[in-house]
Specification:
- By secondary structure, the chain is an alpha+beta fold.
- It has helices at 23-42, 49-91, and strands spanning 4-10, 13-19.
- It has a domain at 4-66.
- It has two helices and two strands, in the order E-E-H-H.
- Helix 1 (23-42) crosses helix 2.
- The radius of gyration is 23 Å and the shape is elongated.
Length: 98
């Protein structure tokens, strides 16, 4: 895939990033991060950028970890259901073969 250099603005700072992702996807992520940073900034918990960025990073990582656990839980349930269906079909084929 072709790599692009895209200039973005994060929290009033301009960065040029190298990516294979489409510009629209990067823009969507940048908007999400900027909104998240502004939300934390408005809470006035911290004034310096480093603390605001670190708090945002921790919050996003926590949300990511929670979503990952939910996905793994759902994935495990689906695998269990598939095994149940397979076991049922193996036991009760009604004489029908693939």
């Amino acid at each position: 895939m072709k790599q692009n250099f895209i200039t973005v603005r994060l929290f009033d700072r301009e960065l040029t990033i190298k990516t294979e992702e489409p510009p629209e996807k990067i823009e969507k992520i940048v908007n999400f991060v900027n909104e998240y940073l502004e939300h934390i900034k408005k809470q006035k918990l911290f004034r310096d950028r480093v603390s605001i960025n670190l708090l945002a990073l921790l919050n996003i990582a926590l949300e990511y970890e929670e979503m990952k656990e939910k996905y793994q839980n759902i994935n495990g349930r689906v695998a269990y259901l598939v095994r149940l269906i397979d076991n049922f079909l193996e036991k009760d084929t009604c004489g029908v073969r693939d």
